[in-house]
Each structure stands twice: as structure tokens, then as C-alpha cells.
Write a structure and sequence with these properties.
- With 525 residues, the protein is α/β, with parallel strands linked by helices.
- It has two domains: 168 residues, no CATH class; 268 residues, no CATH class.
- It has eleven helices and 26 strands.
- It starts with a strand and ends in a 23-residue tail after the last strand.
Length: 525
């Protein structure tokens, strides 16, 4: 990524102090250029440098003017960041920063400067404002050019260069969305029979650094071939006829940290603005124990019919938050249950969950009841009962060994009694560990990036005839390759008063997301 920063005038020396906790921007290879504007003409202080510290110093007015212009590298994202309001480089808290009013003709002026100084670069505006109307005007103008605008009060990055990088790779408002995603993240409740090896969501960068991931190629007629050494970073991934072989954890492999990911998408719904917090988590294996036998031999796996076991698993769910007003309100929850996504009214589920926690019904174990009672913010967060082995998530528990069913398909499901909690359910542990992270993107959130842009399958398999026949056909792809990521608003069914209603594909359309909390009955497990 090639980033040019344009700052107005000659700012006084100092360091801008912004809050920490910036969303991670991954393993980006960034080349920095910085110019200050003098009578709307750029004086370049830094040209095409890999040094972010030098870029930060130049953005604060350091250095003498240099001749020339930035050199754009072939294939790199080209971004120009416009420091429109020239936030003073002083040690001040964001709450103390005044909201800068709009100036007449500011959008046309800055876009003209950007076109002249950095032709072909995608424009991103950084504003010091809390005026949503001003932000909207900037975003409307820049999004037509592939760019975006963000408020410094919302980005939450520690330096100007970090702000520039965050806005370049993630959607505007991503920091605010991450805050909401942490607040409304699901309480992950695994079945008490779940294997300890498969009940921990993995931080993918940590998994790569641990040396447990090997890239394999499916381009030969006599079987797959895997690289001699594991890959340790996203940059080593190669798209094409490839897949990932993920080694199990041993006493010799480095520990892997735990995290879940979120892909926030804001969608207009009439006069409402709905934020879809699309959560994803990676689990080390999917031991479904279904379809074993002769039909699982090489070349005989039938996708969706046999060989449900696969050595890697991407799962998740979506929380829909109405962000139209100043106070966000969760209005719906969408559970991804194998091939179907089913929507529930948030208020109805909340009423049911609160009743279970308060009264402890017969089906609920002491372990589950006491564990939920110890989560201080459990009343703000949805519950996700994760099925043993298959790892689909459900709104309610099921204790039956053989009687559990998928909500929509009504076919057999494994037990999901919620007897084992994810250790990061506790907010006191989650927040400092960054247990919720933004999923990697580029081009201001429009396209997947890093490991999320890998197009092969996660999990080992054996292929012959240059990939024509393979085992483990059901191994998942990266989140970006899956329908729920591409269309987080899509659902296949909704639940009302305990009744499941299918929609689409020749059936009535699904109703709109609930506009406000309402009371409704929800069936128990």
C-alpha cells in the first residue's frame, strides 16, 4: 500500500495523542509520502519511505522540502489521506477536541488538491468533527471515487500514520463498530462433551506464527503436495489450486492466543441505519463423526452428503444493531446453522435468556447457570449454544443425546448443552487480550485482505487428477468466500413466538428487521 498524507500549513511541533486500541491493520507493506500545503500547493517532506516514524515526524512539520513526487509501486493500493482540519499536534484528549465546522467549498478544494498532487490515488479525508451531516457529505463525495471519510474522534488510532492506515484498509467508523462488537459479542457456550482441542477460537495471526499452517498445492495428477516448511504470515499464502494443512497442537508447538472476528456492515433500511455485526470464529477441527465408511474414500466424497468431518472450521453468527439514534439498540440476532441462517427478534430472546438465568429451569445445569451468573455483562450479550463437533450455533440449548434437530432443516444435530464456556467470555479478560478483532480488509473495507483473501480451503485433504477428486470436500474457505460475509442481511427463516417460518425461494419474503424491542414467546430447548 502506497500512502500519501497531505497536511495543511505548517503545524507546530508536538505529538498528537489519540486513544490506543487501534484496530489491527495486519502485515501491510506501506510506503509513506508526506506533504504540507502552502497556498494549496504541496511541499513534499517525505517521499516513498517505508519508515512510519519518519512519516509521523514529517506530518508534524519536520524536515525540509524535497523535489519530486511520490513513486507509486506497481500493484500497490494508492491512497491519499487528506488531513482536512489539521488537528493540532498537542497532547489532548479526544473529548477536549472541538468539532471543527465545515468551510465553504472545502470538498471541491481538497479533491482538487488531491488530484493535482497525487493523480490516481484513492482519496480518504480525516476530519475533526462530530457533525454527522458534514461527515455524510464528505463520504458521499469520496465514495463515488472509491474513497471514504472518517472522524478523528471515531478512528481510535494512536498516531496520524496509524489513522491513515486504518482508514485506508477498514471501513469508516470501524473503530466505533468494534466497540459495539465487543459490547454485543456472543457468549460462546460449548457442549460439555466438546473436545478441549476444538472448543477454542483461534487468533489466526497467532496460529500462523506458531508454525502450524502449511500451504499445499493441488496441481498434480498423482496427489497433493505440501511445502516443506510451514508459513508464518499471511503474505506467504498463495491463491490458486491450494489448501492449508493445519497441524494439531502438541507440547512442542507454541501456544496460540484466542480471538473472534467481526465484519461490520452498515445498511440503510428506510430511514433506519442498521449495523450488521457479522461475527466469525475459527475452530481447530470439525469432528462431526458423520458419514464415515466407504463413501468417504478418495474421490467419493459427495459435498453436503458424506464425510462431514473436516480438519478446520469457520463458524459464526450476526447481531443486528439499530444505530439510527445516538443510543444503539440491538434488534435482531441471526444464527448461521449449517446451510441456513435464521433470524430471531432480539427482545424475545433477551426475555427468554434473562428468565432462564433468573429462575434456572430444570434442563439447565448448575455449571451453566452459575457460569452465566458470573458474567457481569451477560444481559447485554447474546448466547450462542455451539453444537458438539459440528459447531453450528443455536439460540437455545439441547440436552438430548439423539433428539436435537436443526431449527430450519429439522434434521439431526448434535447436542449443545452449553456446559463449557469460552474462557474469553469474561470481559475483564477479553478486552486486554483483544479477543474481538476486525476481520482483515482493504480499500476502506470493500475487499478482503491478508488471510481473509485466501481463496483455498482451510484444512488438509488429498486430491488426484489435478484436483478433480478430493477428500474433505466440505472444508471451509475463508470468511470472505462465504455467502454470509458477502450478504450479512440475508436470512433463510425467522422465528416468531417459537414458530419457524421459512422465506425466499418461492416462499413469502422475510419480514423486515424488527424496528423496536417487543415481547414475544420463545420456546425452550
Amino acid at each position: 500500500m502506497d500512502v500519501a498524507i497531505l497536511v495543511p500549513g505548517r503545524p507546530a511541533p508536538g505529538a498528537l495523542s489519540l486513544p490506543g486500541g487501534a484496530p489491527a491493520t495486519g502485515e501491510w507493506d506501506v510506503s509513506w509520502s508526506v506533504a504540507r500545503l502552502v497556498d494549496d500547493h504541496p511541499e513534499w517532506l517525505l517521499l516513498s519511505s517505508p519508515d512510519a516514524s519518519a512519516a509521523e515526524a514529517a506530518a508534524q512539520g519536520g524536515g525540509a522540502p524535497r523535489p519530486g513526487a511520490p513513486t507509486w509501486r506497481p500493484g500497490a493500493d494508492r491512497v491519499v489521506v487528506l488531513d482536512v482540519d489539521g488537528t493540532a499536534p498537542a497532547n489532548r484528549r479526544l473529548s477536549e477536541l472541538p468539532s471543527v465546522p465545515a468551510r465553504h467549498g472545502e470538498i471541491a478544494r481538497w479533491l482538487g488538491i488531491a488530484r493535482a498532487a497525487t493523480p490516481g490515488a484513492r482519496p480518504i479525508a480525516l476530519l475533526q468533527t462530530t457533525d454527522e451531516a458534514r461527515l455524510r457529505r464528505w463520504r458521499d463525495a469520496l465514495e463515488r471515487r472509491g474513497g471514504t471519510a472518517g472522524a478523528i474522534q471515531d478512528v481510535g488510532a494512536p498516531t496520524l500514520t496509524a489513522v491513515a492506515q486504518v482508514l485506508a484498509v477498514q471501513a469508516a467508523g470501524a473503530a466505533r463498530a468494534l466497540t459495539l462488537a465487543t459490547r454485543y459479542r456472543p457468549v460462546l457456550l460449548f457442549d460439555r462433551g466438546e473436545s478441549p482441542a476444538t472448543d477454542t477460537p483461534y487468533d489466526i495471526d497467532s496460529l500462523l506464527r506458531a508454525g502450524r499452517v502449511t500451504l499445499c498445492h493441488d496441481d498434480r495428477t498423482d496427489g497433493s503436495r505440501c511445502d516443506a516448511k510451514p508459513i508464518t504470515r499471511s503474505a506467504d499464502l498463495i491463491n490458486g489450486p491450494t489448501h492449508l494443512k493445519i497441524a494439531p497442537a502438541t507440547s512442542r508447538t507454541p501456544p496460540v492466543t484466542s480471538a473472534i472476528y467481526v465484519h461490520p456492515t452498515t445498511i440503510a433500511d428506510g430511514r433506519r441505519s442498521l449495523l450488521y455485526l457479522d461475527y466469525w470464529w475459527y475452530l481447530d477441527g470439525n469432528p462431526a463423526r458423520e458419514g464415515h465408511g466407504a463413501s468417504c474414500g478418495l474421490g467419493l466424497a459427495i459435498p453436503g452428503k458424506t464425510c462431514f468431518d473436516h480438519p478446520a472450521d469457520w463458524e459464526g453468527m450476526t447481531v443486528v444493531v439499530d444505530v439510527t439514534a445516538a443510543q444503539p439498540v440491538p434488534v435482531a440476532i441471526q444464527y448461521a446453522e449449517h446451510k441456513n441462517v435464521v433470524r430471531y427478534d432480539y427482545a424475545a430472546l433477551r426475555k427468554a435468556w434473562d428468565g432462564w438465568i433468573g429462575t434456572k429451569p430444570r434442563w439447565m445445569s448448575d455449571q451453566l447457570h452459575d457460569g452465566l451468573a458470573q458474567i457481569s455483562d451477560v444481559s447485554d450479550r447474546p448466547l450462542a449454544f455451539v453444537a458438539q463437533g459440528t459447531h453450528a450455533s443455536y439460540a437455545t440449548a439441547c440436552n438430548s443425546k439423539d433428539g436435537c434437530r436443526q431449527v430450519v432443516a429439522k434434521v439431526r444435530e448434535h447436542r449443545h448443552n452449553g456446559g463449557t464456556q469460552w474462557f474469553e467470555n469474561d470481559t475483564a479478560d477479553c478486552v486486554p487480550d483483544r479477543c474481538v478483532q476486525l476481520i482483515p480488509t482493504r480499500r476502506s473495507g470493500r475487499e478482503p485482505a491478508l488471510w481473509n483473501s485466501f481463496k483455498g480451503l482451510w484444512g488438509d485433504r488429498t486430491c488426484i487428477l489435478a484436483g478433480a477428486y478430493c477428500t474433505f470436500e466440505l472444508s471451509p474457505g475463508s470468511p470472505a468466500s462465504q455467502p454470509r460475509y458477502r450478504n450479512p442481511a440475508h436470512v433463510d427463516a425467522w422465528v416468531d413466538a417459537g414458530v419457524v417460518h421459512r422465506c425466499g425461494k418461492g416462499r413469502p419474503s422475510c419480514p423486515a428487521v424488527p424496528a423496536a424491542p417487543r415481547a414475544a414467546a420463545v420456546s425452550g430447548p
